[in-house]
Amino acid sequence: MISSDVIRGYNDTIILYLLLDHPSYGYEISKKIKEMSDEKYIIKETTLYSAFNRLQKNGYVESFYQEQSHGKRRTYYRITESGVNYYYEKCQEWEVTKEVINQFIKEVNFK
Amino acid sequence: MISSDVIRGYNDTIILYLLLDHPSYGYEISKKIKEMSDEKYIIKETTLYSAFNRLQKNGYVESFYQEQSHGKRRTYYRITESGVNYYYEKCQEWEVTKEVINQFIKEVNFK
DNA sequence: TGTCGTACTTCATCTGTCGTAGTAATTTAA
DNA sequence: TTAAATTACTACGACAGATGAAGTACGACA
């Protein structure tokens, strides 16, 4: 598993990535994260929904409701232009961060 | 610069790395981090010393005093066996974390 | 004499994560 | 047919780690 302190700075980025192509909603995003990380990272519901609120407050996503077949509604999120910019900034930051942390890591190869 | 939320999970690891060879103390460690990261990461004093406390509480380092020339004392930290083990665990975790986050990052190459 | 560098400590605040719990509808299994 | 699991959230409170602000104290240098 992955320590949440590491992922902390990248939850927002991960979510934005999954919104790049098309709007999505909480449950779908969480399943996608689990799947794409090969079950190595499973985001907590509370973490996810509080991230949505933060992203919205910062103007990186917009929300809208979509009624399902039988009157059930889902909250969908759509990435904004500013969200896309923020995402790409974070990607660049990530490359730098990786290099920095790598300086202090010894690669051990054993299973 | 680097966001502190990313580094959050690795401050302890970075410090332990710098103690692997020989004991050291706060100021030296902070200069080393700055230098090795090419000024891209400058650890805050409060972050550093609270990390020392945590590391000591967890048994990953031991502290001792060393008197300087004129009665000034420095607090030195020495990594323990358990600290070494923890460090290598974190190194392995880092490899996994890198892979996971990379799944959600688009590499953009522009300057 | 005053500022800079070294070497810390204390305290209070903030942010993001997480545990617990609850709601409510739909789908699947016994 | 009924119970359990899955879907799709919301609210609340606790906690850990990072940080800002401030202070202490010594030596070197100008």
UniProtKB/TrEMBL annotation, chains A, B:
Protein name: PadR family transcriptional regulator
Keywords: DNA-binding
InterPro entries: ArsR-like_HTH, Metal_resp_DNA-bind_regulator, Tscrpt_reg_PadR_N, WH-like_DNA-bd_sf, WH_DNA-bd_sf
UniProt cross-references to Pfam families, sorted A to Z: PadR (PF03551)
Position of the signal peptide: none
Record-annotated Transcription regulator PadR N-terminal domain positions: 15-85
The organism's place on the tree of life at top rank: Bacteria
Molecular function, one GO term: DNA binding
